[in-house]
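Let's study a protein:

___
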Amino acid sequence: MSIARSVRPRLLAEEQADEAEAVSPAAARAAPSRFLPRALMAPAVITLFLWMIVPLVMTLYFSTVHYNLMQPGEKTFLGLENFEFFVTDPDFGPSVWNTIVLLGSVIAITVGGGIGLSPFFVMPTANALLWKHMMMNPIYGVFAQVWGFFGATPVDWLTDHPLLSVILIVAWQWLPFACLIFITSLQSLDRDQMEAAGMDGANPLQKFWHLTLPHLGRPIAVVVMIEMIFLLSVFAEIFTTTGGGPGNESTNVAFLIFKQALMNFDVGVASAGALFAVVLANIAAVFLIRLVGKNLD
């Protein structure tokens, strides 16, 4: 018995050594197989990294110097003065407020209306031109014709209600995205539960509130996150329709950066504003990612 007990551990050790020798060639063969995909992906990853980091570094540099497009040879180091100038600009407060109102209104309209409506996808500039000339024109627009039919005075939407006009334009553009997400999610709704609720006496409103809406919790969180990130950079609709006016009534942060860069020719202040917009977008993204994470638990 003692001899058998002493031999058994030795045999086990030899078997483990043989298995290790058998695995090591396989591991050696697996290493090149992992290296090859990484090597093939490296050029694309490096290009994307440079595509991201070079503009960021240039923006950081220009935000600390006085660089005017009308005087490209003069570059004076200013430190944080460009940030101070951007924040103390009279248009800064209204642009931030308009951005918040635009975000909240568009998200509320698209999330609320996306459950039942599904317009077609339209490019931002084409969408803005469509609403500017076909819907909101005070002479021959659809709204003007409806107003005239009821004997009311047509409204010049882009002049009298510029921010509301931009909200309607952007909300109509983003409705298809919300609709597609919600319609896809509703395909997985448990019909047996809906039928059981109906048999128990639940009315359509109660079914929606207790079954449909909780089922759409995750899609709503995803729609809110994606829309908020993209709506922070709304520009084409404002540029095509109101031009940020009258005054600064429809100017958001993105359009204010454009005004500083290509209308005031001040690249330094515009770069400082761009960094402010990046910080704002990251704050919103962190908050919304946490919101989506809670809905995915």
Remarks:
- The chain has 13 helices and two strands.
- The chain has two domains: 2-62, 81-296.
- Strands lie at 65-68, 71-77.
